[in-house]
Write a structure and sequence with these properties.
360 residues, alpha/beta, 6-stranded mixed beta sheet, 11 strands, globular, carbon monoxide binding, Hyd_form_HypD, metal-binding
Amino acid sequence: MKFVDEYRDAATAQQYARAIAQITTQPWTIMEICGGQTHSIVKFGVDELLPNEITLIHGPGCPVCVTPIELIDQAIAIASLPNVIFCSFGDMLRVPGSHADLLTVKAKGGDIRIVYSPLDTINIAQANPTKQIVFFAVGFETTAPATAMLVYQAHQQGIQNISLLVSHVLVPPAMAAILSSPQNKVQGFLAAGHVCTVMGYGEYEAIAQTYQVPIVVTGFEPVDILQGLYLCIQQLEHGQAQVENQYARSVRPSGNEVAQKLMRDVFAIVPRQWRGIGEIPYSGLGLQDAYADFDALKRFNLSTDTATEATECISGLILQGVKKPHECSAFGTRCTPEHPLGAPMVSSEGACAAYYRYRP
């Protein structure tokens, strides 16, 4: 298939791997932010093509994985209520809360529906005017515009039986938090191409300069990732710290300005808890006051009590790139996709799920 096969071409991948080996003179540690990139790296063995001096570590770019456990508990509480239709992306259903998951609620009779777009909930709301429709809004800047459009359209159409449990998070503050950590190992980043398709990459300039790390906006296929790594290592070898765009076929410097305006109109930037990591300032999106009526937490008057992760789960360390999945004592034994201890084993973008599937 055109535009896929050419970025999975084995000969081209080998060519870039050889080029990386030729320019590498010392050890470098590079983090790919996006869980989609992680799965591609593990599935296609991209890391196994690299010289031993290059270490790839996996970042917190899995929105399902970083959704805080207390929000999962709140989702379960709402979905368990009578007269509620709870709508969610499919991989949220298996994410463990403190004592259960959404799939358990569904098995007990809760009306939980998997949607493929936030806008699907408008049709559900119109077809069920006596029900309360709640959408679990998770994701990075990639999915936030569609959530913002849901809120905008529901407001414009006067649909009053829709509300949202919002857990949108932002990538740049998470990158800064990782670089600020005493445990930080990251010397360069592969930034998520789809996020930058929406937001552009102007925000990354300050991070690159402040922390003196190269950041390469990168796509998701093996050749994309190897090209991104080549550019990043080239900068590291020359002592540079700039933002480069490998994914130019999709990403413009300014991003999608129409989508950005819609997000600004609907959302305000707020602090956000990241599962396994803690609170990161200015790292989340919450509804603006003008749209507060669509806030499910307020509509259902839910508390925001904190909850604790399973004690042997090291997902926080994995999401920060401090550990890899195989370094968890529970990996593949007490923690599997069927019985997960933490979210990275569940999500289609989770690092633990990638290792379990492709490198058991």
